[in-house]
Amino acid sequence: MAVPFAQTSRSLKADRGIASLVFLAMVSLLLIVWLVWAFTANFSVYAVSDTTQIRLDDTITVLFSADAGQELRNGQKALVYLDAPPLTEPFILPGQVIGLESAPNGVRAKIAPDLRQIEAGPMYAEILNAFSQSVSGHIEVETETLSPASLVLRSAGLNADTAPLVSNP
User: Fold this and answer.
1) Which residues contact 87 (CB under 8 A, 6 or more apart)?
2) Residues 108, 63 contacting (CB under 8 angstroms)
3) Rounded Cα gap, residues 46 and 86, in angstroms
4) How far apart are CA 74 and CA 97, in angstroms?
5) pLDDT tens column, 121-141
6) How many whole angstroms separate alpha carbon 90 and alpha carbon 80?
7) Which residues 6+ apart lie within 8 Å of 14 measured at CB?
8) Better-predicted residue by pLDDT, 11 or 62
9) What structural domains does the chain harbor?
10) Cis ω on the peptide bond leading into residue 85 (within 30° of 0)?
11) Of 138 and 116, more confident
């Protein structure tokens, strides 16, 4: 059964559209908040070494894969993750990249850990003892800071100054 056009027109004129305006305002606000986040939020990208035995001799030398090693530079922040045992609990030690050299199967990086942060802590003696014995762990080096929008542009191949992201199968 067809609705007469006159009834439809009267119905549209009677509708004030408040619900539609409220919904449109909420969606617009959500879009604005999302765009602000996409262009202003930052997150770090890390190059991660394989798990290895770490021994402290003023510096820590660790091997990174060739792909990860391409992004490493002197002065970058590093995090040394020490796993238990001989530690009673896992521990994260800050550091900095102070040297890089090519190796046959990657890049060898020298990391200077910042022991000042733990000297007054309760685990200081335990950590030094662990280093003297060699402890398992891995190193993460912060290679760059990106916004979500720049990551999307890079993955689409639209960011001219960096190579597009390649995912492993």
Assistant:
1) 123, 126, 127, 130, 135
2) yes
3) 26
4) 5
5) 666 666 666 666 677 788 899
6) 11
7) none
8) 62
9) 44-149 (2.40.30.170)
10) yes
11) 138
What is the residue type of 18?
Answer: I
15-37 tens-digit pLDDT? 677 888 889 999 999 999 999 99
pTM score: 0.65
What whole-number percentage of the chain has pLDDT above 70?
69
Residue 35 Cα distances to 66, 144, 149, 150, 159, angstroms: 35, 21, 9, 12, 18
- The label of the residue with tokens 């290895």 reads 52
- 132: which 2 tokens? 């003297």
End-to-end CA distance of the chain: 57
